[in-house]
Amino acid sequence: MSESCRRDFLSHSGRAACAIAIGGVGVELGRRACAQDAWTIEANRCVNIRLGVTGASNVCESCATSCVLPLSAVRAVNDHSQCGRCCICPAYFDVLSPVGPDGLPTKKLCPRDAITRTAIGEVDPYDPLNNFYEYAIDEEKCNGCGRCVMECKDPAGLGSIRLEVRHDLCLRCNRCTIASNCPEDAYRRVGPEPPPASKLEGAHG
Amino acid sequence: MTAKQVAVLGFSILVGGTLGCSPEPAADSPRPANASPDKGVGPVEPPQTADSGPRQSGARQRGVVATADLPKPDTLSEDDWPQFRGAKRDGVVRSSVRLARSWPADGPPKLWEVAVGQGYSAPSVVGDRVFLNDYDEEQSEWMVRCLSLESGAEQWAYKVPKRIRPNHAITRSAPATDGGFVFSIDPKCELHCVDARNGKLIWKVRLPQAYDSPIPAWYSGQCPLIDDGKLIVAVGGRALLVALDKATGDTIWETPNPDAIPVSHSSVMPIEIDGQRQYAYLTLQGLVGVSAETGEQLWSFPWKFNTAVAPSPLPLGEGRLLLTSGYHAQSVVCQVTRVDGQWSAAEVAAFPPPPRGWNSEVHTPIYYQGHVYGVGKSKRGMWTCLDLDGSELWTSGREASFGMGGYVLADSMFIALDGKSGALRLIDAGAGEYRQLAEAEILSGPDVWAPPVVSAGKLLVRDLGRLVCLDVEAHGEPLAASPGPKN
Ligand code: SF4
Ligand code: SF4
Ligand code: SF4
């Protein structure tokens, strides 16, 4: 079955059927085809992750739209140990939206409302704009569109949100449609050789 | 602790005696000169609990200095740097002390260094005194410190118990001083007036309570302005700008704020247009111009900014001002005119929108000989020369990047910091291209964002942990024919 036929087939099937296909036949076939291989995103190539361009309007959505799965195997992941926990998080809020009377942008960024936040630590009611929040990504909702990743990077963000291939979801297709469509050659097959560097070039120490 | 490792700490103490909840100590305590420069000594106030009291009376407090004993302003010299961006608030050093155009391999000679808390505050200098806003995380004390420019020795420290949680560092504004009074706004928007001789409190006002305005996200970034014998600050809430009496803190005028525009991180810029002294102030909604005499709002220029505005408006002469900010905002030049007594402001040049077009997230660029110079937000912060339409005439390209580092113009050279690494660079301001004269590794990154300060041949630079004084004078070279631009 060609890549496009397979994609059509999957996208026209129900979610349950897909899940079965993904969980069973797909995984097995994929793994058999390339036993040691997995797909990964090279951080210093992906336009959404690497330093340089920011702004959700410059986002590359290929990871969300090219995957053969109905919901891409690529998801956004927040590394909480790296997160600044800012009150005005540019990955959570649409920083282009008008600021409301509470001093916060009035719109959220994620088109799928996949990011939630919870106040953490002491909350100072006198200084509400400097409280801290934990930002969590609901991977059931996220489709890896990359908008939040594009915003959570230097200088406003700390690069704590990255796109990652979820290997439990990925079919490890022999010819990955994301890799074929990736404009930056950032979608890489890793196998016996070492994975690409994940530390961003030029990032904070 | 670095800016990355943001700890969740606690609360500040904001209410004076009259409100009856968690009062601050009545007298803010100057620290003796022999105290350790980086660790406060003397009684330590226990961490206070939250102040959630109503924003009303109790916002103002008088200090302990008797009226007869009030300080007198100094006569400032060309070597003084009494406030943010210098005496004319343009980022230009007008001293006639010649500066070295090259440095030894390990950088200019270091005269002294002192430990400072994490922040981006630049110092201000009058005579031999360096004034710096600082924070001691161990003691939970916010401070104004006075150091000797000659030796770095601490002369006094005014300390206020105040718990501030690092939020992309803590301190981020410079004091303003006339040599007699020192005015500082702390991260939680309390405005303090202290005696430059000894650090004693003269008066203070809690701006959020007095004007019903929130503390901005990432805390206050505003640097107060002393102009024509008055203190000018933006407050948001009930008033947009206020002019206060330096000695008493009493209100001279208030600019009404019917749209309840919140205070930004920008600082008020004094300008003169068509013979009228004014104050230009940048908010998320755009630029406003206010009469220096009465506080009346004369004109406004609406412009869309996003999330936060930190740079100040940059006067380009003849009523033109450049407005820029980060968060993907587009930079623009507006023209302010008066026709038949009516003021108006109109767009004359919109820069290309980001990410292609130039903008600045933190710093106010410098206007020099008809061009705009500064670090652009995009492309990892290249040093850029622009014309007044926003066309990039040249950049540092692959030669050097500056992140969000600060810069100053002195003796026809830009002294600029790489905000990521702390590298200090000397750039020829008249070369018509990026020509780097010297580079030194003095500081360490990340977030070396405070603008450098030059006074009498001494360069003050800081990172998140140290304030360093370097000898950058060209010893033995003749005096400069022209100390600086005339704009
Ligand atoms: S990658 Fe897209 S869908 Fe996923 S959390 Fe970020 S903005 Fe939302
Ligand atoms: S921008 Fe990134 S680092 Fe900053 S709060 Fe948001 S998720 Fe965390
Ligand atoms: S397709 Fe390539 S550049 Fe686009 S988001 Fe995926 S990895 Fe990044």
TrEMBL record, chain A:
Highest taxon above the source species: Bacteria
PROSITE patterns this protein is in? Answer: 4FE4S_FER_2 (PS51379), TAT (PS51318)
Gene3D superfamilies in UniProt: 3.30.70.20
User: 4Fe-4S ferredoxin-type domain: which residues?
Assistant: 133-164, 165-193
Q: Which InterPro entries does this UniProt record tie to the protein?
A: 4Fe4S_Fe-S-bd, TAT_signal
Stated name of the protein: Electron transport complex subunit RsxB
Automatic annotation (TrEMBL), chain B:
Gene3D superfamilies in UniProt: YVTN repeat-like/Quinoprotein amine dehydrogenase
Query: Locations of Polar residues compositional bias?
Result: 49-59
> Where does the Pyrrolo-quinoline quinone repeat domain start and stop, copy by copy?
144-395
| Chain intervals for the UniProt region annotation (Disordered) | 20-83
A Pfam family of the record is PQQ_2
Q: What is this protein called?
A: Outer membrane biogenesis protein BamB
InterPro entries the UniProt entry points to = PQQ_b-propeller_rpt, PQQ_rpt_dom, Quinoprotein_ADH-like_sf, WD40/YVTN_repeat-like_dom_sf
Q: Which organism is it from?
A: Posidoniimonas polymericola
